[in-house]
Amino acid sequence: MTIRPGQPWGRPVPRPPDLVVVRSDAEVTAALSRKSRTPVGVGAGDLARTLGVAPGSNESFSGRPTVNEFSIDLLRVYLDDRPEAVVACAHVVARAPWYRGHWLRGRILVVMNAEFVGTWDVAPRGHPNDGRAEVVEVQASMSIRERLAARRRLATGTHLPHPRISTRSVKGASWTFERPLVIVVDGCAVGRASSLSVEVVPDAALVHA
Length: 209
What we know:
single chain; two-stranded parallel sheet; 40% strand
């Protein structure tokens, strides 16, 4: 069951003897997709930081008799008319390619299951098990100067509110873009698309941290 406001999240459990520890968000989704269903330990990445693993701590599970087990949601990501979904555990980013300005120009769309993207606290209200995703959208009209100022505030999550940055919580949503944008899922570029759909899958997996 997805978490409700005020409820505790996660529980201590004996460390699984076959625990597989991964070090990035992309490795989390890859490990969860394996048919073996081997228990996954989240040692680094943006989901890990959201779970309370300190950045750069090189979290080690060896020698720990117990670990914390968390139920998490996942995101199903569909690009254009491709029938196969890409799965995300942390976030989905749609932004201009480098030659069109990357994050300095044009529309930026971020769909957050976790709270962080690298050192940026993009979605302070983001929670990986509330059955919803936080959508943060930067308008194309936002100037370079405004973007640089917002970037400086991202580390502390104080970039919001902003008149050219909109936020909302969704269980699923679709978007279309005037020109194809680069789609980055859990830190890995998966292609360009003119349309994007994201669906939240509640309680989709268990991870350990």
